Amino acid sequence: MITPANKDQEILLRTARRNFEGAGFKGVDIRLQLEKILSEDKHLRECCANIGQLAQFLDSRFITAGVNLRMAGAPDEFLRDRLEEFVQLTYHQGRFKTIGLYHLFNFAAYESSLRVGDVRIERLDGPTVSRILGEPSIPSFLHPQGVGDYFVVADREGACDDFITWLVEFQQTAERFVEVLKYFKDGVVHIDYAVPHFSPEWVNQTRKWGVFFLGSPRRMPYQSGVKQYQISANDIQELDRWWAAYQLPAVTARLNDMTSSLRQADLRAAHYYESSHAEPNASDRLIDLTIALEALFSPTDQRELSYRICQYASQIVGNASPEREACFRDLKELYNRRSALMHGSYNVSQYIAGKFVTHDECDKWASIIRRCILRILTLYLRGTEDRSKFLSDLSRAALDPQLANKFREESDPQNYLNELIPQTQSTSKGSN
Prior knowledge:
It is built from 19 helices and 8 strands. The protein is of the alpha+beta class.
């Protein structure tokens, strides 16, 4: 049942088999019997991917206990009771199911169970999280209090021998949904790890051993857990429309076309903006956000670079003059801080103390950049292709209020969403 990895292991296995056979253990016959069980018993075949897993299950859940009872002289009814318990455990806990759990770092909601379109989100309590991770301790070491207790949940019934491949494949859907969360509203949220789980419960002791997860659990809560990404009852219907619009065939086809210069700029900006959500260090977030901003608005001639980038960004997101002025000031401060960091002219003591740049400041800049990416994406979805022409028109809009208002109206993502999916068409059920 074990394929030797090298010659030394082959010798050890051959010696072990010889010793077992000498003690009366007929390994070849038992292997054939296990293979017969898997070929004839559909439920056990789904639960146990190979005869090694089946052997471990039978041994740990019945054979060893039965042998101990027999050697202790227990009457037959004890063995019959043990067999009945084994049958109940094996066959009376439902069909085999593979479950994928994708942790939403820093996410919180108004209900413990949510459904957004075809996406299911569940809140798990501390002991349950420890158990699915395979940790012996409560509370969990890998998943401390404050990091968020919500998971995107996927499941499938029937055989799933390569559950890791399935877990990774579905994560692409979960990640797409989290992309929508990142643009739906301000706040830090991302998937930091994924866990496979199985039903019936006993399968977990057969298919996975010890601590088991994919990814890198983020162990320090964001802002001490007091600035979680909150979905309220008032948000859920609108979030459902966003997710539905994101999956429309026409929108998907447009997003998958990466040939235009404006789409490429928006993609580069989106990559760094989305990556900033996973950065635990505020200075690293600062760098990601600056790159995202420059990917959108860097002029080709490089003259008055930071001034023009800040002007472009504030022009497209600011609906009124005071808001545009505030955006301009905030982004200029972003550039001042980025310049000090990149040129090594920052105050070292402030940096060590975490005061050179703070997460609160990064949140403020991220909000502006999020809205910029959304507005430029909206223009692209409406048909704008050329980045240079877009920047030229945006520059002229600074002197032409009518053109500026037209830009802001056409780039408003809410206007575009209402055209795609009127509010009356929302299908979200909220909590289940």
